[in-house]
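Consortium newsletter contribution from the modelling node. Members have asked for a concrete example of what our holo predictions look like. Here is one, prepared for the GDP-alpha-D-glucose complex that several groups have been discussing at recent meetings.
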Amino acid sequence: MCAQTIAGNGSPAVDGRPDENGGTGGQGFVVVANRLPVERLEAADGAVRWQRSPGGLVIALAPVMRQRGGAWVGWPGSAGEVLEPFDSDGMLLVGVALSAPEVAAFYQGFCNATLWPLYHDVIVPPEFHRTWWESYLAVNARFAAAVVGQAGAGASVWVHDYQLQLVPAMLRRSRPDLRIGFFNHIPFPGYELFAQLPWRRQIVEGLLGADLIGFQRQGDVSNFLRACRRAAKLPTRGAVIGVADREQAAGAGPPRSGRALARVGEARNVRAGTFPISIDAAELDALARRPDVRARAREIRSALGDPRVVLLGADRLDYTKGILHRLAAYGELLDSGQLTPSEAVLVQAAGPSRERVDQYMRLREEVEAVVGRINGNHATLSRPAVHYLHHSYPREEMAALYVAADVMLVTPLRDGMNLVAKEYVACHFDERGTLILSEFTGAADELGSALLVNPHDIEGVKEAIVRAVRISPREAQRRMRSMRKRIREHDVHRWATSFLDALATAPGPAEPPAGP
Ligand code: GDG
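And here is the predicted structure:
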């Protein structure tokens, strides 16, 4: 029913038209994300089973998909894996296969070594390689083709994140009947940084295939609007971008590359907006109340030697998360004697992530060297100062760690939202515990009652740690109570509903706004 074609100068386009009964696959709602919401489990006898992954996105979207009936298009997660579509909990899962060279060029390369650092304030230098870009084009076209194969006429399609920024325009080109939403989970960079990208205009135009483009923070929206004006020379008014059909008006025929994809069809308005993602606060609250989770939290504290204060960091091992900065602050507090390991122990859970990308290998070495140095200076035979855990944990264990922690250290240098901060708050129904939170996270916009820090200011982080260690129970309770109210009222269900409601009414065909 659908095919990937190579158009003009080698840029892939998507072909596939809805049949007269409405679409090629008949689904009314399609989610497309880099990964499928399942993990592959292989038994000893070689039998393969797929288990629902615990991610927030699936929790948010599962009820919507069950209600509307829907398909989820994504990569199964291992190179070369070809999957027949299958049903899982009321949704149809549709795998997009990536070859090993594509995993290297598209995923590890363009996604994780070009876009990820570029969109996170160039904390490490982004690499620009034309072959990676070509792979990004080809893989985005394959995802778009898979969506075309599923979406019924007039279906709503929700595209997720930086791996798939060309998908909206590719979809619009072959399926103008679709209502297309895009949500960017990571920050959108300021134009001075974004302008470094050799394919900046194609990315902006790829996104503009959507009717609605959602971001975590107002700053991301402003940065994107500026990129529309500067990179694509399009007019904006408020958060509305006017996409004129210049190429077709000029009789130029179908676009020849990713460049002009957004400009096909009639003149349209595209809306950008802020939709801060959240968690299933009620589910985590219930998990944290479970007797087995509470018992496990007590066991963790006792295994740590029952220190007065347990400090916790829990992140993917990623240079955006500011792990080295928090270790530096904690290490200096021990050096100066302001803290002792018997008083305050740090647990740093650093989940393995992107282990084949150079910068991640380097970070791991650095973090492990610093942990080794702190423990060399401050551990005793029976008591390390930093418990460093390079593992992934089941959800229950994550909840037990949150419950066990008196102080949660969330110190990213840049983070779209940061769900860990919200999860910590959700687990503290006892209104105890203190969150130290970087102001460079999306979560800081909502959790103003945390102890906010600039992670680059090591003295400031040290002061916040000392303050959190010595905080009065009353102050901790006041802060926690206000943060819990916020996440209870703004949970992931509200996030999904507000995005999909806005998508349903997003501006469709219209005159573009007047120039700036
Ligand atoms: C991106 C954006 C944005 C972590 N270790 C384990 C584990 N986790 C779970 C946490 C949390 C999730 O992973 C991490 O979410 P974050 O939001 O903190 O960070 P990213 O992975 O960078 O996510 C971010 C997010 O997308 C959503 O839009 O907030 O800004 O960068 O849920 O609990 N879960 C389990 N075991 C672990 O070891 N089960």
